[in-house]
Amino acid sequence: MDFNKKELYDHLLNEIGTVLVRKARNNMDKVSVGRRYTIKGRKHIASKPYEAPNNFTGNLNTTIRYERITFDSIKFGAGDQRIKYAKFLEAGTQRMKPRPNYTKTIVDNIKNLNTIVEKAMKEKFRLIK
Q1: Whole-angstrom Cα distance, residue 105 to residue 17?
Q2: Which of 5, 53, 92, 97 meets the CB 3.0–4.6 Å disulfide criterion with 49?
Q3: What does the pLDDT look like over 66-109, one tens digit per residue?
Q4: Domain coverage including residue 59
Q5: Average pLDDT over residues 14-37
Q6: Is 77 strand, coil or helix?
Q7: CA 54/CA 47 separation, integer angstroms
């Protein structure tokens, strides 16, 4: 069996992207204890600085995704034309400290991502022999 680099990258990047999206969504489901307030009659607990944002409407959570940029790279994050505040939560502003979710997800899961790569490489090279 021949070594197909594109097939390996497809498998790896799809697996890594799926894991990152799942973990980032899970981070937002954990409620941190911050300031409490009411918005449009609904109670909300704000996230603490440097913790993932708390899920309030679910709009941000539904836009978390990864997309292939080139055959060997992906882009991971959130936001779209409707949800433009994802970058402000991640990086913070002059008046708000950051609530990083995507950077934190990558850093927290480096070991897990390395395991995915190792497993795929072992499987691929085992098939070549």
Answers
A1: 11
A2: 97
A3: 999 988 899 999 988 888 899 999 999 999 999 999 999 999 99
A4: 5-128
A5: 87
A6: strand
A7: 5
Share of the chain above pLDDT 90, in %: 46
Q: pTM for the full model?
A: 0.82
Total domains, the chain: 1
Residue 36 sits at φ, ψ, to 5 deg, of -105, 135
Is the confidence at residue 1, as pLDDT, over 50? no
Candidates 49, 54, 90, 68; CA nearest to 10 is 68
Asked whether the beta carbons of 109 and 117 are under 8 A apart, the reply is no
Neighbour tally for 53: CB within 10 Å: 22
CB 54 within 8 A of CB 47: yes
Whether 127 contacts 1, CB under 8 Å: yes
Cα–Cα distance measured from residue 14 to residue 16, given in angstroms and rounded to the nearest whole number:
6
For 123, the 3-state DSSP assignment is: helix
